[in-house]
Structure formats: C-alpha cells, structure tokens
Amino acid sequence: MIGLEEKREFREFENRAQKLGENYYEDYKELKKYIWHSGVTKWADFKFIFGQVLDLLEEAKIQDKELTDLIGPDVATFIDEMMDDNS
User: Fold this and answer.
1) Where residue 30 sits, what CATH number does that domain have?
2) Angle (CA) 60 82 67, round 5°
3) What is the 3-state secondary structure (H, E, C) of 42-83?
4) Among 2, 13, 1, 7, which Cα is nearest to 49's?
5) pTM of the prediction?
6) Residue 44 counted as domain residue
7) Mapping DSSP to helix (H, G, I), strand (E, B) and coil, where does residue 23 land?
8) Which of 38, 50, 62, 74 gets the most CB atoms within 10 Å of its CB?
9) Which domain does 82 fall in, by range?
10) What are the two backbone dihedrals, phi and then psi, of residue 74, each rounded to the nearest 5 degrees?
11) Rounded to whole angstroms, how far apart are CA atoms 17 and 44?
C-alpha cells in the first residue's frame, strides 16, 4: 500500500519529469510504463529507479542528446540491469 509520503514523492518525480520538455517527458512516460510492469514491488526500488532515470534524462537534456546516446540502444536491458543492480 502506498502512503501519503510515497504519493508526495511520486508527484515530485512527475513534476520533475514534466520540466524536461516534451521529447524527454515522452521518454519518461515510456520508461515509467516499462518500470511499472517490470515486477518491482517495493517503493524504495521504484524511487531509486525513477530517480536514476530522471537524472539520466536531465543529463541528456543538458547535453542536448537523446537518452539512447547516454545508455545505448537497448533501453529495456539498461533498465533491467539497473533494477538487478539495485536488488
């Protein structure tokens, strides 16, 4: 069950993502769908992964690059490895 603190943190992630601009926000939404369906069950794991994803998207925006320029072409494998490393 998600509590008020978790909801607040999730809203902060969403606000942070929306500030990225349309292209990066679309990437975030696609990654978010993948992460939700990945089998992660603990909020701490979601929080870590969303934070890392947003850091990467912000870095891509600063460098004016695509996300795949930073993490490679296989985004799903990158996210899976990130989740494995966090467990």
Assistant:
1) 1.10.1900.10
2) 20
3) CHHHHHHHHHHHHHHHHHHHHCCCCHHHHHCCCHHHHHHHHH
4) 13
5) 0.85
6) yes
7) helix
8) 50
9) 16-86
10) -100, 85
11) 19
Residues 45-79: pLDDT tens digits?
A: 889 999 999 999 999 999 999 999 999 999 889 98
Tally the domains of the chain: 1
Query: Which residue reads 């004016």 in tokens?
Result: 64
pLDDT at residue 1, as a whole number:
55
Answer whether residue 1 is part of any domain. no
Q: Which residue has the tokens 């998207």?
A: 57
Q: What is the pLDDT of residues 5-29, one digit of tens each?
A: 999 999 999 999 999 999 999 999 9
Question: Taking Cα atoms as reference points, which of 32, 15, 34 lies closest to residue 77?
Answer: 34
Question: How buried is 15 (Cβ within 10 angstroms: 0-12 exposed, 13-18 middle, 19+ buried)?
Answer: exposed
- C-alpha–C-alpha distance, residues 2 and 45, integer Å: 13
Q: Is residue 46 part of a domain?
A: yes
